[in-house]
């Protein structure tokens, strides 16, 4: 079991040697992730874990993947997508150009979900979906638009529950155990590494989605990231968070109006 | 004996359960005397759904403030907190909650082990962990961690549990402090309350 002071040593190494700053991640969860990696990779002692960390640059890829949570799904929380369909996307329809940012997109399932919504609203051709994550490995997967076929039944149900009217299977072709999503969906996507801890605002957006990412940050870092979003959202733009995340603790809250009881806020000033 | 010591020491009670636990809570919650001097944290295995019917059901049975946790909510004495569906519930040193949607543990999210272990880290000997009815082995490892950090661990008497497997596992594989039926459990939890 790795203890608190040892966690500090690991975080220090990751920052000093590799530039990844996890110091303001929510500590309880981060400690669990580090312990999980330590057990999975069967290190006999903390010293050996740390040695590997410091001496093996390739192992860092695995550490970053192990410490960050990459769980995601298509049309996750279908009712959230229903509101996007019914309220958010129609209000963007009259814009000449729609810019959307998926911050912390992981393997891209939610980006493809959004592309489907835009396609069905006839807006995909004039939209750009920026999808960023700190982890280059997951972006590589996201770019391909290939997801496990075993998930498709669940995703199809989610899609229907979100108000989808088409045949979901028309959006992908099955290749053995994988489902490859049609190229037209990916044409308007731009994938890039971006670290919410250290990188700055890079554009102005009509909609920013950052769902189940802030839960891994402490309050200080949450506030920093929310300010980054605030700088990146245009007038009357939207911010969408995960189902248990909130703007309530943030100084930017007065600038926003919550849409019903959903975790979607619209910028009003 | 230790009762007075318990009262002043207890800062949090974590109740974990699976199949058959809701009915225990429906008896326990109305019998608690408010205000509580500790935070009462409830983690139940439940179907993956974001509807709030469970918290509404439990709220009918108590005058104590109860709510489903949102990320970074404070874990304050006197309040009852319910882990939301599909997230692990962790506790930070600052006595507030963090949520985590990483892999399931013991086929479960929320996992009882995750919350027990995280609470043990924060509350140490000021923690009481209670494991109720269930058909899964989740919770036993977490109770062991609580015990190691000096807390008190309790299991529902298996013969009174709708599903006896979960408390039975704890009795077999932890140095359990108490094994209670629902009535005894109610008396015990009230005895932890320094305001009662």
TrEMBL record, chain A:
GO terms for biological process: methylation. Keywords: Methyltransferase, Transferase. It comes from Larkinella terrae. It comes from the Bacteria. The keyword Methyltransferase applies. Residues 1-247 form the CheR-type methyltransferase domain. Pfam families: CheR, CheR_N. PROSITE patterns: CHER. Gene3D superfamilies: Vaccinia Virus protein VP39 (3.40.50.150). This is Protein-glutamate O-methyltransferase CheR. GO terms for molecular function: S-adenosylmethionine-dependent methyltransferase activity.
TrEMBL record, chain B:
The active site is at residues 18, 45, 138. The keyword Repeat does not apply. Residues 6-185 form the CheB-type methylesterase domain. Pfam families: CheB_methylest. GO terms for cellular component: cytoplasm. It is an enzyme of class 3 (hydrolase). GO terms for biological process: chemotaxis. GO terms for molecular function: phosphorelay response regulator activity; protein-glutamate methylesterase activity. Its EC number is 3.1.1.61. Keywords: Chemotaxis, Hydrolase. It catalyses: [protein]-L-glutamate 5-O-methyl ester + H2O = L-glutamyl-[protein] + methanol + H(+). The keyword Electron transport does not apply. This is protein-glutamate methylesterase.
């Amino acid at each position: 079991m790795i203890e608190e002071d040892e966690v500090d040593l690991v975080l220090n190494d990751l920052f000093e040697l590799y530039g990844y700053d996890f110091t303001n991640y929510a500590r309880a969860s981060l400690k669990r992730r580090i312990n999980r990696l330590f057990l999975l990779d069967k290190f006999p002692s903390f010293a050996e874990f740390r040695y590997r960390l410091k001496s093996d640059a390739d192992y860092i890829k695995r550490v970053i993947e192990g410490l960050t949570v990459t769980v995601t799904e298509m049309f996750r929380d279908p009712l959230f997508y229903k509101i996007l369909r019914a309220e958010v996307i129609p209000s963007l329809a009259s814009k000449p150009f729609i810019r959307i940012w998926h911050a912390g997109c992981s393997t891209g399932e939610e980006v493809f979900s959004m592309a489907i919504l835009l396609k069905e609203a006839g807006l995909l051709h004039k939209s750009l979906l920026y999808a960023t994550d700190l982890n280059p490995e997951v972006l590589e997967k996201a770019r391909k638009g290939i997801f496990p076929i075993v998930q498709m039944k669940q995703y199809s149900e989610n899609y229907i529950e979100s108000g989808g009217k088409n045949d979901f299977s028309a959006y992908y072709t099955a290749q053995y155990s994988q489902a490859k999503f049609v190229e037209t969906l990916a044409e308007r996507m731009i994938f890039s590494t971006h670290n919410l801890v250290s990188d700055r605002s890079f554009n102005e957006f009509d909609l920013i989605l950052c769902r189940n990412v802030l839960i891994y940050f402490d309050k200080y870092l949450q506030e920093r990231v929310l300010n980054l979003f605030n700088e990146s959202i245009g007038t009357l733009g939207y911010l969408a968070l995960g189902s248990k995340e909130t703007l309530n603790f943030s100084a930017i809250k007065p600038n926003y109006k919550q849409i019903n009881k959903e975790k979607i806020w619209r910028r009003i000033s | 004996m230790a009762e007075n010591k318990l009262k002043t020491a207890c800062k949090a009670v974590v109740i974990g359960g699976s199949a058959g636990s809701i009915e225990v809570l429906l008896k326990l919650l109305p019998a608690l005397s408010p205000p509580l001097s500790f935070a009462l944290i409830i983690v139940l295995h439940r179907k993956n759904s974001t509807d709030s019917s469970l918290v509404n059901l439990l709220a009918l049975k108590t005058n104590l403030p109860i709510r489903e946790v949102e990320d970074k909510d404070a874990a304050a004495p006197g309040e009852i907190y319910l882990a939301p569906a599909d997230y692990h519930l962790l506790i930070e040193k600052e006595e507030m909650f963090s949520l985590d949607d990483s892999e399931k543990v013991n086929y479960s999210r929320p996992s009882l082990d995750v919350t027990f272990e995280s609470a043990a880290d924060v509350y140490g000997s000021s923690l009481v962990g209670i494991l109720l009815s269930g058909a899964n082995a989740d919770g036993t490892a977490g109770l062991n961690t609580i015990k190691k950090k000096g807390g008190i661990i309790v299991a529902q008497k298996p013969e009174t549990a709708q599903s006896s497997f979960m408390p039975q596992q704890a009795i077999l594989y932890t140095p359990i402090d108490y094994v209670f039926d629902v009535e005894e459990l109610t008396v015990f939890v009230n005895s932890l309350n320094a305001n009662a």
